[in-house]
Amino acid sequence: MSAGDPSRVGSYHIHTWGCQMNVHDSEKLAGVLEREGYVPATSEDDADVILLNTCSIREKASEKVFSELGRLRRLKRTNSNMLLGVCGCVAQQEGENIYKRAPYVDLVIGPRAIDSIGPALASIRDGGRGALRVTDTEYRSDSIRFPFDEIRRIGESRAKAFVTIIEGCNHRCTYCIVPTTRGREVYRPMADVLQEVRVLARKSVVEIEFLGQTVNAYRDSEGNTLAELLTATAAIDGIRRIRFTTSHPAQMTERLMDAMAAAQPTVCAYLHLPVQSGSSRVLRAMRRGYDRETYLAKIEALRSRIPGMLFGTDIIVGFPGETEDDFLQTITLLDEVQFDTVYSFAYSPRPGTRALELDDDLPPAGKHERLQRLQEHQKGIQAARMATWLGRSVEVLVEGRSKRNEERWTGRTVESRVVNFVGDSAPGRLEWVEITETTPFSLAGRVRASDLDRRRLAPI
């Protein structure tokens, strides 16, 4: 198949699991496919190419992918021309093993080889090997350009866009497989990032979210850090909001915190800062590179610079060796910090991680009991914090229709609060919403008045 030949291309469908990095990778996959002449399928059943963009963080991630492949095999039997591919972290982790266990898979694409999917599909369509592996595991330098970011496909909320600035992770937390699946850190030149942001701003994007497995470790070959990038991005005309995720506490420097404060209110007053445990002893076993006191000092330093700043976090309960006292220290950390969002998980071992060597003496039932206790405790904290928003008017960037109620719109405040509301609106608008209801997880209300400087949306 020649690239862009309309007589030979077809439609595609992408399943996406995992974090914002995977969501953005799916946008890039879609962009590459559309550059080659493919169009989005109306449904999975009608697709000529189905891609699974996978995540390896959660328990039994690979088995869930193979289960999904088994389901799609039946669909492939009814459409012999359909091509099936596995992308993302499970593709990188499993590699050739995917072909051994699922020989009907046509291609395997690692996270760092997204731009090769077009030639791979063309080769297969033209009679090449069906089991074509095009994963790429390492970059040869610590700096990399992502030219295919410019042709990614942006979702329904045209006012918001993800921008990758760093790939990989140099930390070696004992429970984590990410350094194996994503490799060591590589950084985009700041000039390239800013060029992309300017293009997005000209297309009426008003919110930028910088992405990386350890996004605040960013440092390009000229020495520019995330601090300089935030300052420069905030100065770009049209950019109203800047977010970045996911951060590591060890890289939350004074320089970065000062830059965040100086760029208020453009840099959003919300930060996702994974703590994983409230016990310094457990944090040492995890090799996180900080203790409880250091983490709390970072929170205090940020709140002193940016009053009213909100925080989210990740927590693992039942890590090998965690005692009841260790767990209770995590509970007291919730009380002390007053997180607004907590993603919590029961520990489960991952092949290839150092934690496999540790004595995991707490049975699964004990882990899940602690997880339930933690989630109930945090639910109470969130309910109380959310209740303080009742009656307030907040600016919301509209993302689209609510998945639970098509009569409502949904979006986020600058503090990352989810708001569902009724009234005249459209994706990408900035609306002022009066809050009339609260739950532990979201706010609800009605449009009070439209933002007076709402801009006309340009097609992307």
Describe the overall structure:
The model is unreliable at 1-7, 131-143 and 450-460 (pLDDT under 50). The strands form five sheets. This protein has a six-stranded parallel β-sheet, with helices on both faces. The protein has a five-stranded mixed barrel with strand order 15-16-17-19-18. The chain has a three-stranded parallel β-sheet with strand order 7-10-11, with helices on both faces. It has helices at 20-35, 61-78, 88-94, 97-101, 117-125, 178-182, 190-202, 226-234, 254-262, 280-286, 292-305, 324-337, 364-387, and strands at 11-16, 39-40, 49-54, 83-87, 107-109, 132-133, 160-164, 166-167, 186-187, 207-211, 241-245, 270-272, 310-317, 341-346, 393-401, 409-412, 418-422, 430-438, 443-450. The protein starts with 10 loop residues before the first strand and ends in a 10-residue tail after the last strand. Helix content is 33%, strand content 21%. The chain contains 13 helices and 19 strands. The chain has four domains: 11-133, Methylthiotransferase, N-terminal domain (Rossmann fold), CATH 3.40.50.12160; 142-268, Transcription Regulator spoIIAA (2-Layer Sandwich); 281-387, Transcription Regulator spoIIAA (2-Layer Sandwich), CATH 3.30.750.200; 393-450, Nucleic acid-binding proteins (OB fold (Dihydrolipoamide Acetyltransferase, E2P), Beta Barrel). It is globular.
